[in-house]
Amino acid sequence: MNTQPNSDSKHESSPQKSRVETLLELFGVTLRLGLTSFGGPIAHIGYFHHEYVRRRKWLDERSYADLVALCQVLPGPTSSQVGIGIGAIRGGLPGAVIAWIGFTLPSALALILFALLLQEFDIAGTGLIHALKIVAVAIVAHAVLGMGRNLTPDRNRATIALLTATAILMWQTAFMQVILIVLAGFVGVFLYKNTKMPEFSTLNLHIHRSVAIGCLILFGGLLVFLPVVRQLTAYQSLAVFDTFFRAGSLVFGGGHVVLPLLEREVVPVGWVSKEMFLAGYGAAQAVPGPLFTFAAYLGAIINGWPGATVATIGIFLPAFLLVIGILPFWNALRSYPNVQGALMGVNAAVVGLLLAALYDPIWTSSINKPVDFALAAVLFGMLEYWKLPSWVVVITGAAGGSLIFTLGL
């Protein structure tokens, strides 16, 4: 595969523009998307398509669809990975970094400020935290339903999801989640080895293979050696970075699925209380941009601005390394039926993990009275049937929960 850029490609920067001008343009576009892209990863992909394909014509329809397909099968935040890939196409490695910063910065800052506000003032006394926990019930229930329709459409994959949910509720550890994901991949290979997969088009992207291999080596090295170094030192920042790097490395299915893994990592060790965890998760639904910036909130709760910076870089770094590392090899990899079968099994397990998280910790710590369930049902209806944006649901839930608290219901 040719890994050198084609000088006459229509996706290259205009020769009249300097490299700095190109990167500044990229930052402006991605920052605006970071400020306005509400609605989760599927909506983000729609915003990207309108901006990058239809309006600016930075890449064509086929290249965009293939890039989205790649990012959907990698662990980590799909929409952020698509943005990183487009940034790499437009401006190389600096473009990938700038695209990530622009899209991530607004929601990360908003959630950091929310975390600091929670710690500075007694917001818990207003009933807001409990209200946001109820919001989380509706949001995750909606995610389970939608992902279940798409990722478990047959009996085999539904069975994988149910067995995964049962196992993780019985043995609630982060290590068990990894085991279940790996097992689901092997089961998927066995069940779907004779399934005819759809044909795909060639992804025409230009990344030097030496750079890609370096990113993959760095990803693997950090994943293996960070836990070892963590055990040999007593630095909390290193422990935080290791926790969030593993979360970003092992979570398939996007932002909602990272919830159970992070909860098992930060709540039992006392870094974040269960109440603060769920309050932040509810607040994360009200901001634009990637849901993985929930890590910025958790990091701020743990150690203020330094903790937020470490956690945010930690959870997004795997996505960056994997996108840049896999792009040149993606066309060959996805031609193997076993790879596609494994991904079908893993995606079904993801639904099971999210179903288990819906029950514990979300439902068990949020729905205490009939009025709590009633509010959660209304919020779920707003998402599922009225198709209202998530920020409207969050505001409604916060107002409704505060009213319930004030009236003593």
UniProtKB/TrEMBL annotation:
Transmembrane segments: 97-118, 130-148, 168-191, 211-232, 283-302, 308-330, 342-359, 388-408
Primary subcellular site in the record, as a coarse category: membrane
Topology versus the membrane: Multi-pass membrane protein
Keywords: Cell membrane, Membrane, Transmembrane, Transmembrane helix
Coiled coil: none
Keyword Ligase among UniProt keywords: no
InterPro entries, A to Z: Chr_Tranpt_l_chain (IPR014047), Chromate_transpt (IPR003370)
GO CC annotation, single: plasma membrane
GO molecular function: chromate transmembrane transporter activity
Record localization: Cell membrane
PANTHER family recorded: CHROMATE ION TRANSPORTER (EUROFUNG) (PTHR33567)
Entry's family note: Belongs to the chromate ion transporter (CHR) (TC 2.A.51) family.
Protein name as catalogued: Chromate transporter, chromate ion transporter (CHR) family
Organism of this sequence: Desulforudis audaxviator (strain MP104C)
